[in-house]
């Protein structure tokens, strides 16, 4: 399809599909900010076509209730909208061949920040020797949201998703390639809407979905399918507190309010790591995502970047001013 056109469902009794070209004003807005680009799930205003033989012209994208956004892949600070106006954002991860907890946490950050209800869906439960162990492994990362284990080919574990659809909800599926999103979509819609592919010889997922599409469910509601995400960049305002609520709760118990959780005495976070109450991997993941979000915040705000640079130079001067001692002193 033309880059400056998109598929729409008309607000008539039959929800007829049509193609609409973007208006010049919308094209200019999208050039300036990719987040203004129409996304799957958007409500839009149309006008009768009067250019290039198009039946309809898309003139405006209406304000979004929710939006799943990631940092654009162009290296700028602009964000890309993966799905709009979803009621539920389902982070889909496969139990096999490997459960990437860091990726689950990263995608959950997008889900929590979207304003929609976050859910983690663990697929391929029928292929895992111990699904309960996989669920327990993800439980800490998914605290505060629903955690579902499903087998789409066997039609098991899908009832909560179907119940939300029956209530008229729109569910956005996000996840990496090969985790079973297309198989899950087909099971929810009751038809082979999307072609599916098996995992490759090396256990790596192959891309099946290459566009973002909205599918109406037969019993009500809709499913937003997104392409498999190889990279999930966090924007400056992506919230991490909900994803790492356990770390935040521990940090509140530290002796010092400005504790950096590195070497400080009375650090509740480090104590939890030492006792095994908090996995070291989870603390490392939190630190990495915090650094990434802070970096993007500095990119978006020149004042923050200047303050950070000044602080770094001050620390460097202080280190150099300290007395040094001969080796072995």
UniProtKB/TrEMBL annotation:
Listed InterPro entries: P-loop_NTPase, Ribosome_biogen_GTPase_RsgA, RsgA_GTPase_dom
Record's keyword annotation contains Ubl conjugation: no
Free-text remark on how the cofactor is bound: Binds 1 zinc ion per subunit.
Pfam families in alphabetical order: RsgA_GTPase (PF03193)
UniProt subcellular location: Cytoplasm
Binding positions for GTP per the UniProt entry: 123-126, 175-183
Cofactor: Zn(2+)
Keyword Cytoplasm on entry: yes
UniProt EC number: 3.6.1.-
Gene3D superfamilies referenced in this protein's UniProt entry, alphabetically: P-loop containing nucleotide triphosphate hydrolases (3.40.50.300), Probable gtpase engc, domain 3 (1.10.40.50)
Subunit structure: Monomer. Associates with 30S ribosomal subunit, binds 16S rRNA.
Family: Belongs to the TRAFAC class YlqF/YawG GTPase family. RsgA subfamily.
Function comment: One of several proteins that assist in the late maturation steps of the functional core of the 30S ribosomal subunit. Helps release RbfA from mature subunits. May play a role in the assembly of ribosomal proteins into the subunit. Circularly permuted GTPase that catalyzes slow GTP hydrolysis, GTPase activity is stimulated by the 30S ribosomal subunit.
Protein name (Swiss-Prot/TrEMBL): Small ribosomal subunit biogenesis GTPase RsgA
Organismal lineage: Bacteria, Bacillati, Actinomycetota, Actinomycetes, Micrococcales
């Amino acid at each position: 399809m033309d880059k400056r056109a998109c598929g729409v469902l008309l607000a008539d009794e039959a929800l007829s599909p049509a193609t609409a070209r973007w208006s010049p004003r919308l094209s200019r807005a999208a050039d300036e900010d990719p987040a203004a680009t129409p996304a799957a799930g958007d409500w839009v205003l149309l006008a009768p076509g009067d250019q290039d033989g198009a039946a309809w012209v898309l003139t405006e994208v209406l304000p979004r209730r929710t939006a799943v956004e990631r940092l654009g892949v162009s290296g700028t600070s602009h964000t890309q909208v993966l799905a709009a106006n979803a009621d539920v954002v389902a982070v889909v991860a496969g139990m096999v061949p490997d459960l990437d907890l860091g990726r689950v946490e990263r995608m959950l950050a997008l889900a929590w920040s979207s304003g929609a209800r976050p859910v983690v869906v663990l697929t391929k439960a029928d292929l895992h020797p111990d699904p309960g162990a996989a669920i327990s492994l993800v439980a800490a990362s998914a605290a505060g949201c629903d955690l579902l284990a499903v087998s789409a080919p066997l039609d098991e574990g899908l009832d909560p998703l179907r119940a939300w659809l029956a209530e008229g909800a729109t569910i956005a599926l996000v996840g990496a390639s090969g985790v079973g999103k297309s198989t899950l979509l087909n099971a929810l819609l009751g038809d082979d809407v999307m072609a599916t592919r098996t995992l490759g010889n090396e256990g790596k997922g192959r891309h099946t979905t290459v566009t973002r599409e909205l599918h109406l469910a037969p019993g009500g509601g809709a499913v937003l399918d997104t392409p498999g995400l190889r990279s999930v960049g966090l924007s400056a305002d992506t919230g991490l507190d909900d994803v790492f609520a356990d770390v935040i709760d521990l940090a509140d118990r530290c002796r010092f309010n400005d504790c950096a959780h590195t070497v400080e005495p009375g650090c509740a976070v480090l104590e939890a790591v030492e006792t095994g109450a908090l996995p070291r991997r989870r603390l490392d993941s939190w630190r990495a995502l915090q650094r990434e979000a802070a970096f993007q915040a500095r990119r978006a705000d020149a004042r923050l970047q200047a303050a950070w640079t000044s602080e770094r130079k001050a620390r460097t001067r202080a280190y150099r001013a300290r007395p040094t001692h001969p080796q072995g002193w």
